Every structure is written in structure tokens, then in C-alpha cells.
Amino acid sequence: MPDANPIAPPFYIGDLLVDPPVLQAPMAGFTNYAFRQIVREFGGAGLLATEMVNAKGFVWLDEQEATHPDRLWGVADEPRPLAVQIWDNDPEIMARVGKRLVDEYKVSVVDINFGCPVRQVTEKAHSGSYLLREPERMGRIIEQVVAACGPTPVTAKTRLGCTRDKIVIKDVAQIVEGAGAAALTLHGRTAADMFRGSADWDLISEVKPFLKKIPLIGNGDLDSAEKVVQAFQRYDVDGVMIARACLNKPWLFAQAQAALRGEPIPPDPTLEDERRLMVHHFELVKERFGEEKGAVLMRKYACCYAQGRRGAREFRKHVATIETADQFYAVVRDYFPSEQHAAAG
């Protein structure tokens, strides 16, 4: 029998109920509408998020009366709740874009990226995790976005600090809350760590006492339902966010939801089911971008699905060259691991 008392109860971001308390991370180049639709079909994510949107780029497209970014594909019409993540270092531009997202796209949450460690965002644009060097500017950005977006909640996602010898997150957390953010998501690495090493969940948990009212969402290295359960049992967090692990296991949210309810964890799809899933995913991408561009975009998703499978290297070698739908279907049929391949070794 399922446990009547779940391991982790739902929580609120502003007036938005997040149930279950497991969020899908925004990931540049991956969490577009097609991927979000796949996650929705499996279920189990309490809040989904788009790829991060460059605020200056959005404004430029608006001024040119051009089509809004592909990263907003599907946002206007897809089911809610849905968060859109934006990044830049100019408070006025961020507030302007946040207001457009609320007024025109009716998003559920506007999330601000203070965590991206990629050089193009940090050193070139002085945004993302670079702003951990300027907590006061982080506060000004949040204040102006909150003022522009209310009553839609505004959240912040960041890291422990720029480097291991400059862990500033406890001070930053108080600035984030004081500026009016409705939640803080914390990745348990520094900017210098990129994605190396292990996320420090002890440090994530230590931030909770420095937040008076808003929820703390932990992020980093959650690649199984069991680890999601352990995160809630061992650490002082209100929610968790799953990132890279869901790219090759979009059903992970459904497994985590079951585990948190004390229910049996659903098994992974069979390899044959995964082959059908990849074709379905490709059809969603192709519908938006056409066959040629869709095939190129699908290469990286297909490699994610194959990750950790016997024969993945051979599959990646062939899928990396696809240019048409027929080529994609043939590579999936002939090279994606199957039960027969596994049995044959």
C-alpha cells in the first residue's frame, strides 16, 4: 500500500503549487517544447522549464519585429505550470522581457539565471554565474523583474560561488530573498567546477536556515529515483531539480514521483520502447523545424537516449551524420541497441 504520508510534500512558489516537488531544469539546447512534451507524457514533473532565453536577444528581435526566439517555441499554448528562464545583467532589460513573458505568454514563473558557468555567458556577457561576484546587482535585477512581473512569481537559480575558496551563497541567498524572489534553486557546484566532481548537498542544505520564508530547491547529480528520495531524507530542501540525467531518462520524473509516494518504482522502458520514443521525439522536432534542420537537431537527443547502452558508440557514430528522416529511421532501426543486440552481446 502507498504511504499515506509522502516523503516530500508539495510546496509553493508564490501562489503556485509545485506537486510533486520535483522540477525539470532549464538546459540550453535541450529543454525545448519537444523535450518538455516527452516529459509531460511520462508525467511526474511538478514544474517544467524552457531553455534559458537571452533577454537582450529577445529585445532585439522584438525591435526588428522578427519572430521571437525558437527557445519560446510552444510556450504560449502548452499546458501549465511552466517556467521560462531568462539571463542578462541589465535590470531594465530583464524587467522588460519578464513583463512580456507574463503579459503575452502568461508563463507561470519567471526564473533568472545566475548559475550558467559557460564562458560565452560569464566572461563575454558578464551574466549567469559571473554575477555571483556582484550580489548587489543580482538584487537589483531581481527587484526590477519582480516589480515588472507581479503577481507572477520570480525565482533565481545559482551556484555556491565562483570558486571553491569563495563560497558566497549564504550571503547571496539572503539578498535573493530580500529582493523579492519567490524561490531559490541552488546547484551544488561552483562556477569554476562547471560540471566536474560531485554536487555538494551538505552546502546546499546549510543554506536553508538563511532563508526566512521562500523555498530552497536543490540541484545536482540526481540521476535515479532513489537519489531523489535520499535528497529529501538527508538534506534540508523543499524541492529538487533534475537536470542532465533526464536527457537520457525523461521517465525519471515519473519514477521519482512514485518513489516519493512510497509506491513501486516503474521500470525503465524496454529498448524497443525507447526506439519508438526516439521516433516520436523526432516527429515533434521535425514538425517545428522541418526535416533537414530537425534531423540535425535530433542527433544530440538520440545520443542522449543511447547513453550507457551497449553499442552506444557505434550508434552515435552513425546518428551523428544523419541529414534526413529516412536516414534517422534507418540508424535507429539498425544501430540503436535492442534486446536482441544485448542478448547477442
From TrEMBL:
It catalyses: a 5,6-dihydrouridine in tRNA + NAD(+) = a uridine in tRNA + NADH + H(+); a 5,6-dihydrouridine in tRNA + NADP(+) = a uridine in tRNA + NADPH + H(+). GO terms for molecular function: flavin adenine dinucleotide binding; tRNA binding; tRNA dihydrouridine synthase activity. Residues 24-332 form the DUS-like FMN-binding domain. The keyword tRNA-binding applies. FMN binds at residues 26-28, 85, 157, 187, 243-244. Its cofactor is FMN. Its EC number is 1.3.1.-. Keywords: Flavoprotein, FMN, NADP, Nucleotide-binding, Oxidoreductase, RNA-binding, tRNA processing, tRNA-binding. NCBIfam families: nifR3_yhdG (TIGR00737). PANTHER family: TRNA-DIHYDROURIDINE(47) SYNTHASE [NAD(P)(+)]-LIKE (PTHR45846:SF1). Belongs to the dus family. Catalyzes the synthesis of 5,6-dihydrouridine (D), a modified base found in the D-loop of most tRNAs, via the reduction of the C5-C6 double bond in target uridines. This is tRNA-dihydrouridine synthase. It comes from Posidoniimonas polymericola. The lineage of its organism: Bacteria, Pseudomonadati, Planctomycetota, Planctomycetia, Pirellulales. The gene is dus_1.
